[in-house]
Design brief:
Length: about 280
């Protein structure tokens, strides 16, 4: 009965994520949420997306509460190929995020006569910590492949994705004016909060060594994937369609968000697989 409830909650999580993503993409096409947008139902769309995010969080919490007697958070004894692959891809996206943010800093300094350091410093910091995060996930990938490395020994590196998320959060906080006008940034804000939640859950698991995965870790993994899908996928689709002008914050970080969510989900799936054995 418990497994049936878990499967139903996963189904509802997938449905709400797809629905929110579709509406968000619809919002981009019709410029919903912009002050000048002439769309009668724009407020309704915004509130529906927020409601779907809330519903998704409830389903994620329900699923997490159902999980009992979970396996250890990190167990790389057999060489986890799925965790290895997602870690490598995440490291690659972080590296390109660093390159992209470096270019953004250069382009900004060259294009303005007066530099706003409240914008430039968080931008540069996110690029720097993206580079360090790239090394962090490379060490995690090497650990997953049993290459005589253990990422758990690199204490300070655990906080590099945390610092990356904080620097991006600061940059968002100085832009958000209204949750109706800046819905895209608000969703990104929630996503980065989930990144922090997930990373602190990971750090806690590292500190406790052989402790089993917690409900907080399960919840943060699912919500990170949910929000990464909601924020990242519509942005990537708009960029591929050449409609990037409709996005308020064009950044390679969208790809990083998606891969962060994939990594969290891959790690959770590995835990579930070991739990069910």
């Amino acid at each position: 009965m418990q497994k049936i409830k878990a499967k139903i909650s996963v189904l509802f999580i997938v449905i709400t994520a797809i629905a929110a993503c579709a509406l968000h993409l619809f919002q981009f096409f019709f410029e919903v949420g912009e002050p000048a947008a002439a769309f009668a139902g724009k407020d309704s769309i915004l509130y529906i997306i927020y409601a779907l995010v809330f519903a998704g969080s409830v389903f994620c919490a329900f699923y997490a509460c159902l999980k009992r007697d979970m396996a250890k958070t990190f167990d790389f004894g057999d060489g986890k190929s799925s965790v290895f692959l997602s870690s490598v891809l995440l490291a690659i996206t972080f590296f390109f995020d660093f390159v992209h943010q470096g270019y953004n800093c250069y382009d900004y300094v060259q294009s303005v006569s007066f530099i706003e350091y409240t914008y430039l410093i968080p931008l540069g910091a996110s690029g720097l910590f993206a580079l360090i995060s790239s090394f962090y996930f490379i060490t995690l990938a090497m650990t997953a492949k049993n290459l005589n490395y253990d990422f758990r020994n690199f204490t300070l590196l655990h906080f590099s994705p945390v610092a990356w998320a904080f620097s991006k959060l600061f940059g968002i906080m100085i832009k958000i004016v209204d949750i109706k006008v800046n819905m895209e940034l608000c969703c990104e804000f929630i996503l980065l909060c989930m990144v922090l939640y997930f990373m602190f859950s990971m750090i806690s698991a590292v500190d406790k060594k052989d402790a089993c995965a917690t409900k907080s870790f399960v919840f943060s993994s699912l919500m990170l994937m949910f929000m990464a899908f909601l924020v990242g996928v519509p942005r990537m689709i708009m960029l591929l369609l050449g409609r990037g002008d409709l996005i308020s914050n064009v950044s390679f970080s969208s790809c990083t968000y998606i891969m962060f969510g994939v990594f969290a989900l891959t790690l959770l799936c590995d835990i579930n697989k070991r739990t069910n054995c």
